[in-house]
Amino acid sequence: THNTERHEYDVVVIGAGGAGLRAAIEARQQGKRTAIVCKSLFGKAHTVMAEGGAAAAMGNVNPDDNWMVHFRDTMRGGKFLNNWRMAELHAKEAPDRVWELEAWGALFDRTKDGKISQRNFGGHEYPRLAHVGDRTGLEMIRTLQQRVVALQQEDHETHGDYEAYIKVFAECTVTRLLKDGDRISGAFGYWRESGNFVLFDAPAVVLATGGIGKSYVVTSNSWEYTGDGHALALLAGANLINMEFIQFHPTGMVWPPSVRGILVTESVRGDGGVLRNSEGRRFMFDYIPEVFKHQYATTEEEADRWYTDQANNRRPPELLPRDEVARAINAEVKAGRGSPQGGVFLDVSTRLPAEEIKRRLPSMHHQFKELADVDITAEPMQVGPTCHYIMGGVEVDADTGAAAVPGLFAAGEVSGGMHGSNRLGGNSLSDLLVFGRRAGAGAAAYVDELPDRPKVSAEQVESARQEALAPLGRSGENPYEVHHELQRTMNDLVGIIRKAEEVSEALQVVEKLKERVKMVGAGGSAVYNPGWHLAIDLRNMVLVSECVARAALMREESRGGHTRDDFPAMDPKWRRRLLVCSLGDGSAVKVAEKAQQQMRDDLITLFDRDELKKYLTDEEMAEFDGIAK
Ligand code: FAD
Predict the structure, then answer these.
(1) 14 pocket-lining for ligand 1 (C-beta < 6 Å)
(2) What is the reported pTM?
(3) Which of 269, 297, 420, 462 is the most buried (most CB within 10 A)?
(4) Atom of ligand 1 nearest to the CA of 141
(5) Can you tell me the distance from the alpha carbon of 563 to that of 416, in angstroms, rounded to the nearest whole number?
């Protein structure tokens, strides 16, 4: 029996990470009846796992910091491909969003004079990350959930019902967005536990579903991250941009298979851990790029001295930027010098006394002992790059989070543009707050201006039901096998280093997988059936993978999270071209080029001419010289 329960809301927010919660709070504060729907438990989202902090130019630690410096850092980090309006709003509004969290009860670490403390992070010119030890994401989610509860208590006083204006639907997966003509009319999904269906009748939907990591075999992402929001948007007629840009973290666990990709913190290398290949060589010395030659040690002796004397020695090459280290590890493995389980060795055991390791890296010690039965005080870890974050996502209006489809909004990792070709650490948590709030406000304003309420079509509900039910009981292919083939293909052929032949090969495989996905079957009933859930998720993963591969094939340059072996240089011509994915009439992904919007005069003149020269074409430089005069 598959009952479809029905709920009516003004705004449905899909996702309960930082972006979704902040959007829902805003919509509710603007008087809208709001639903928060999330695939797993309430409170379990990637946002909880974020450690570093939220980047906001409050200037608490260094008074020279301000939004303009943060804006410049963000544009540099994204190699100038960012949507500059988003980068501007983000830099200007992040401090207010952090103070607001504090007003809602977040307890950030303090400076000596009692201000919110800020820490240094890669790519940020000044100490800028507001943090709570190494569990900032947890505090952020805790605070936002507390705010939701506070609003529910207000509603209980006014309306006698805690859930009158904001309600959480946890362990509920959305599989389709519904439309009335061009406009959003609702969302359709199922309960994970019972398999029963749910219909949300709503004129506005905010997507806040996070990442796509599960399309890769090695990823730091957890099971929910199957690119659902990306695919839902595409299927509803919205566009995705920048899909070729994916951030690979250099060190994830590679063994055992069940924990492959789980993050191994950068602190291991910061505290003296070194990378070695199967021949015992500290190979990072072989991979110092020309531009960094003067900043990194060229001998092991100098590198080792750096840990105790940073003023007179250069940094060890293990601490090169993430993309450099990830590419080096990848190259060693490809050259046949990898570890038995297909990574390289990361060793602290011969570098620090056992007690020191346990004191400095307690969670890593615990993680390897528990998950891999490896004692990192006695033997090396095996690590390799892991798919971590997608810069690409739903193309949105910077100010309102609105997608191309009326009534559809997106914020957080599922949206694209803000981070350009590469995200700086710490800019994600602030992104969630700034654009979560804006998307919630955008959705509320949209609902206010609606001339009439869109209607849910019974036909669309029925077809969503049929689509979801199709794999159940069908004696088709095993969804786990199809998933694994997709993951391997993306990992091996559209991974850190890409070349035309390999990406084309991946596209052929994806094309076949698309057909096979239509035939997957899951045995058992609709009650708590993970095989069935995966069969449903596969549609999304295959679609998103096709977008990544098609865009990666088109972009003939290397920039940020997109490295082409056959086009190793960054090309200013390509900075002006954004790749936009959409679905044509059939199910084929189309990729079109779109001109990058010209940066506003007052923003571009924040940069030095010499710096701009690295990124802009001669034509653009001539224009800049006109403005700068
Ligand atoms: P998420 O927090 O990912 O939440 C997504 C939500 O959508 C979840 O509630 C999920 O259940 C729900 N959802 C998904 N699909 C559906 C569906 N079909 N139906 C219903 N609900 C759905 N960033 C930093 O800035 N600093 C860090 O230190 C940092 N560390 C990280 C460590 C790890 C291990 C990982 C994986 C990421 C880290 N990141 C870090 C990245 C950052 O945490 C994420 O990019 C960010 O939290 C994404 O937030 P979000 O609100 O967009 O989505």
Answers:
(1) yes
(2) 0.94
(3) 420
(4) 2
(5) 19
